[in-house]
Structure formats: C-alpha cells, structure tokens
Amino acid sequence: MSPPTEPVASLCPYCGVGCGLEAVPQGTTFKIRGDRQHPSSQGMVCVKGATILESMERDRLAYPLWRERLDQPFTVISWDEAITRLVQRLQWVRREQGADAICMYGSGQFQTEDYYVAQKLIKGCLGTNNFDANSRLCMSSAVSAYMGSFGADGPPCCYDDLEATDCAFLIGTNTAECHPIVFNRLRNHHKRHRHVKLIVVDPRRTPTAEVADLHLAIHPGTDIDLCHGIGHLLLKWGHFDAEFIEECTHGFADYVKLLEGYPPEWVADRCGIAQSDLEQAARYWGHAQAVLSLWSMGINQSAEGTAKARCLINLHLLTGQIGRPGSGPFSLTGQPNAMGGREAGGLSHLLPGYRHVTNPRHRQEVEDFWGLPRGQISDRPGRTAWQMVEGLERGEIGLFWIAATNPAVSFPHLERAKAAFLKSPFTVYQDAYFPTETAAYAHLILPAAQWSEKTGVMTNSERRVTLARAFRSPPGLARADWEIFAEVGRRLGYGRLFDFADAAAVYAEFAQLTAGRPCDHSGLSHERLARLGALQWPCPAGCSDDEARAPKRLYTDWRFATADGRAHFCVEHSHGVAEPTDAVYAFTLTTGRLYGHWHTQTRTGRIAKIQKMHPDPFLEIHPTDAANLHLNDGDWVEVRSRRGVICLPIMITRSIRPGTLFVPMHWGFLFAERAEANQLTHPTACPKSHQPELKACAVQVLPL
Ligand code: SF4
Questions:
Q1: pTM of the model
Q2: What CATH architecture is 65-134+338-549?
Q3: Ligand 1 pocket: which residues have CB below 6 Å?
Q4: How does pLDDT run across 40-76, given as a tens digit for each residue?
Q5: Strand pairing of 636-640 and 645-652?
Q6: How far apart are CA 56 and CA 604, in angstroms?
Q7: Where's the 4Fe-4S Mo/W bis-MGD-type domain (predicted)?
Q8: Sequence ranges of the chain with CATH classification 3.40.50.740
C-alpha cells in the first residue's frame, strides 16, 4: 500500500481502555501519539500504546509454515498449499468425526470483522459452536453477571461517569497498572474534588490502592461477603432506594433475608479487615449521590465470578445507583476487543448481536440472515476454552485452530494444558509472531497481519467503536485474520457467503445483523466512524450525527432487558476460593499484570524499553512470611502447588497481605525458564461463566 502523507487515526491494540492513537508519517516510518479527538482517552496513552510500533518489526511471521509431526522442523509453504491442507483436514474431520471435533480458539485481539467471519465459518457453515476465545479467561463472568442481573450483556456506564461520580468503588482491579488511562481520568477527578471518595478492595496494596481514601485488603475470595456486609449496613442505616426497588427490581425480599446473615462483626472477621473500615465503606456508599463501581479480573477470574459480579451489582440495585451520570456497575475489559467479540458472538454459547445458540429464535434469525438452512446452527453450546483441553485429552478433537492468542502461557494448569496440546492430531496456529510458546505445538502456521496492517473496528469497555485503519503493509504474505477465514469458507464451497470486497463490507453485514438488538451497530459503518470518529452503541440506523456522538448510558429509563423488565437481585452466599490453604499448601497465590507488560509478552517482550522496565518475574511476599521462612529480599524460592512448580526470586513488600503471595502472569518459557505462573493455577471454573479461577490457588514456598 502507498504510505499515507497525513496522520492516520487508529486505536491502541492492547487493553480494553481503547485509547485513540494517531500514526504520524515521519519519512519512512511513523511517530505514534495519543489522539486528542478520541473521546475515551483525550490524547493520553500509557507506555504500551506509546511503544507499540517497536513491536511490529521483530520476529514477524511472514509465510505459512508446515510440518507433519511436532518433532520436525517447519518448511515454508505457499498459501495455496496451506489452505488446501487445512480445508482437506476440515472436510476429513467433519466427515469422520463430526463437526464437533473441530475447535477454534480465538482472541480479543481480533477486530470485529475477524470475529464475525470466524462465527460465520465455524458456527454457520461448519455447524459447530466450538468457537471460544481468550475472553473466556477474561470477561465471561461479567457477561453472565450482566445477563443474570439485567437480562443482557453490556456495561451500562460510560467513561464520562469517571468524572461525574462522587464515590468510586474499585474491587478486584489494579486500574492504575492495568487500565492506566481510565485510572488517570478517575484520579484527576478525585484529586480535583475533595468530596470524591475512592475505595479500593484488593489483597495487595497496589498503586491503585496507594491513592485510595480507603483500602480494604480483604482475604482472597471474600468479595461476596464484603458486598453483603456493605449491603447489610446500607439497609440497616436506611441508605436504599425504596422506589427504585419497588418499581424496577425483582427478588428484594430474598435479598433482605440473605443480608440478615451478614452482620458487620462477622463480615469484618471473615474478610480480615477492621469493622470500622467496613463501616466507612458503607458510609461512603450511603452518603454518595453517584456511586460508580469498577471491576476487572479480581472478580471475573473466580470459581464464583458470576456471583461475585452480581453481588456487586446488588449494591447498585439496593441504592438505585444505575442509569444516572456517575453511577453504575462498570466492568473493565481486558482485551482491546473482547467487547466486540461478545457483540459478534465470539464465545461458544453466543451468536452475533448478543444472541444465544440455545435460543431457537436467535438461531433462526442468524440462519435466515446468512441464507443457511434452518437447523444448520447447532443448538448445543460449544466447548469453552478449558473444555477444548478436556476434549483433546479424550481424543475427541481432530482439528484445533488457535488464532491471535498464546494459550501455552495463559491457560491454567499449564502442564496439563500443554500435554493436551501435544495430543492434538492437527493444530493450526494463526498469529503475527514466531516463535511463540504456542507455535511449538502447531503443525500448520498461518501468518496474520496485525494492528497497523489491517483495517477494522474494535469496541472498548465503554461500548465505543473505533475504526483502526491500515497504514502499512503486512510483512511477506501475512493476511488479515478475516481474509484467511473467508478464504477457507470459499474453498469449502461457501463462496457466496464470503464474497466480501473489503473489511468495510464485512462490518456492514455484521452491523445489519445487530439491528434491533441491545448492541445495535446498524447506524455505524467504516465511513461514518472515519467521518465522526469513535462512537458508542447502541447506534441504530437512522440516528442523526448528533445522536450518534452523544455519550450513552444503558438503562437510563430503568427498564431492563429481562422478561419482566426488572433488574434481578442475586441471592447467593460465597463458597470462598476453590482451593483453600491447608497445612502443606499454606499460602494463597494470586496472579496479575504489571504496568508495562501485556499478557504473555508476545509484543511487549520484544520492546526494549518495556523489557528494561520489567526484566524478570518475581514473587511478592510479606516481611512476616519471609522472616518465618528465613528469607531475604532477592533470595530464590521454589513455589509449589498441587499441579506444578516454579522458581523465582522474592520481593519482600508490605503491599501484600501476610499469607498471600503475588506473581506476575507474563512469563512463558520463551522469556524465563521455570517461572510460568500458570504452572501453579487450577482450571476450576465458575459454573455459569466457565471462567477459571486464575486469581487464587494454594501453594507452598520452599527456600532454594
Ligand atoms: Fe493502550 Fe490500554 Fe495503555 Fe490505553 S491504557 S494506551 S489502550 S494499553
């Protein structure tokens, strides 16, 4: 493609904050800067967005690669040969083992166009719902919580609420490091207005907690108890909205009964915090005009992630803190386009437009729209991420297709996951980089274009859709993910369904399929997004430019998407962490991210500045625990769980609770030996969201 001469508006492809970027041509290269016109980020970027271009140059995968067996070296092959091999295998597996022996594991790094064409191929043409994405490890508990409480997915808030709240309740989110630009906006508001309160709930004293008015360092796994404890006090002190509860909610009487069992002295003891701190938190909630709660992986990555998020939402229902400026429950998305993935049906129980595979009307709508025979889409939810591992173990999967993600680092119980990958008779790995940890398990490797090399849209945490335009050519023969899926569809004989002129045509078709649905994109197009900038959904066809530009909140009329139009209280007790500590495994290990790195380092591990910032993994331990083990700062230890062992140096810090340890999750075997956090974690998952409890497992620490 010919290089642009004017700045090109784009979007940071790292996290769900979704900051606008501009690529400014400078001779033969580009300078990346924040886009001041982007409403979400207003020109701000963190170190990842600022250095993104550096990651585009190293270790790029440029040609398809093939090998018969995993112990052989790869050979470069043509696209024609690669697609032929893939299509022949798809046809053979479908014929010999059935469509459900085919699995695709995709990514919140996909643009919406990639997601959409993948759904059409896998769920529509091939007739299996075995498409899941790394969002399963990230946001699926938020999805099922919104569904359970409001009747539809979709965060109700927008980023303008960060500057309209007078009490921000941050639970299970280290926002300062993991969603830094959201935090900048909130922190600036907090600094400017002394009455604004910031409450942070986290077992670690993170940089987020450092600046809070109140830090509740609860025991891991006691989030539900804390929420019920706050609810108990709000009710007792009369801080509830009787009119909202009466007119707009369901299940209040049962909720009140449940809260009776959460007196403050019991809750404080259970959570490991002072009763006065619990009461202060409830006081801040009760006295605020607008309460905004933010959450992320500390809530979602749990064996009771759905219940945790719903019990947090309960507090908003109790106090009527929803649908108004500055208030509401707000999940912060991990991946840049996990939201777009949900909209496009990119989880194994979903179809495009927030539809569900188990709903006959939804299946028919999609079949009719795609021109497929009724009954073509399976009525069974497909395999979730971990169920794919279990399917590989049982020999039920004949083709495993992984795209734009690195499960050989990010899956829980990594040794078991890797052993399952080795059993796959045919693994396709579609990515932008080589080598990666997951590439070691692949037979066929397909080179994918990535950010800056392909045009498409992504939706950020506040439901804002940004067009990211290509401004450079991909390396070698790399192609956009959606183009690869479309080519496979055509070669399978579905040419008519994949006859897209470009990414704009893909998006136009997807947007049409969302008309009238909660996530209505039908008023959006590449052309309109280019002309007006990033816009939020719902954006129905026919809305004016001013309407399209206006900030949007959901449920402003307090009518919800449930069958009865009411929001539903969740009446559940906590079961605590799935793997409690005992005499042998006496510590609770929690995992998380660092400011500079992104997930498994596929990009950030290749950026010198970020490598310098976070060169090595480490284990955070409290001074009391270190003293009991006769350890000094920097000593190496072995950390063991029932599943695996890792070795790393300790960092003694008061920022972690005694009895709790922290290890960053970024290191796979390519970047550090024997330091993979997920060797230790377990796959026990929330029964509703199927999101594994990556945030807590029981371990022991042995000095080396
Ligand atoms: Fe990118 Fe997230 Fe940083 Fe914004 S906050 S620049 S989206 S990584």
A1: 0.97
A2: 3-Layer(aba) Sandwich (3.40)
A3: 12, 14-15, 17-19, 41, 45-46, 48-49, 180-181
A4: 999 999 999 999 999 998 999 999 999 999 999 999 9
A5: antiparallel
A6: 10
A7: 5-60
A8: 65-134+338-549
